[in-house]
Amino acid sequence: MSTPAALVPLGAVCMQEADASAVPDHDAWLTPAERQWLGERSVAKRRADWRLGRWVGKGAVACALDAPELPPDQVEILAEASGAPTARIRAGVGWAEVSLSLSHSGGVGFAAALPGRVRLGCDVEAIEARSDRFVDDYFTLDEALWVRSEPTERDVRATLIWSAKESALKALGEGLRLDTRSVEVQGEPPPPDGAWEAMSVRGPAGITLTGCWRRARGFVWTIALEDARWW
Length: 231
What we know:
The chain has 2 domains: 14-118, CATH 3.90.470.20; 121-230, CATH 3.90.470.20. Helices cover 27% and strands 29% of the residues. It has 5 helices and 11 strands, in the order E-H-H-E-E-E-E-E-E-H-H-H-E-E-E-E. The strands form 3 sheets. A 5-stranded antiparallel beta sheet has the order 7-11-10-9-8, covered by helices on one side. The longest helix has 21 residues, at 44-64. Residues 2-9 have low confidence and may be disordered.
């Protein structure tokens, strides 16, 4: 695949990551509405993943609002009708002008946030093998060729492409409702030391998303957004 223009990847994007062990055992850090939602779910894994996502999300929102001392129980993260997370501040301020994306995989949570309303998506994925059928069904021809061009890096590359697609589809507000082959990822594999590398995603109707990806601790991390000025 061709390489996108080099980007400075962190900029104003606030990121938060944490292992499941960092999430408090109690629920006092959740808002009443969040506790109600959680109380209506009984599947242990879903509850744990949801709590992990909210924990990192609240940290990212506080960062994006430049309010590092904001208590977690003053940030409420619920889902829109589309399933996308929306954050608000409970202290009478109303809906916060912040864009938020959440992800979790293998007991690791990841969140990205920006002040204002922009198309933003993030994703974390455990690096794992994906079959040839998976690659052919969900990747474009160029992506599939790139994945297979370096056998020793095949699993990393397949995970990178899948994660970048997840981030891009979240940024577009579609999630996996949209054909994953309608977006095409471009970039070079990031180094194994956790450094961020630039990538881009060509979407439908001429939309181009810019972003970055990295690999660390057996996971791939990706962020995509439409407004490149944040980078």
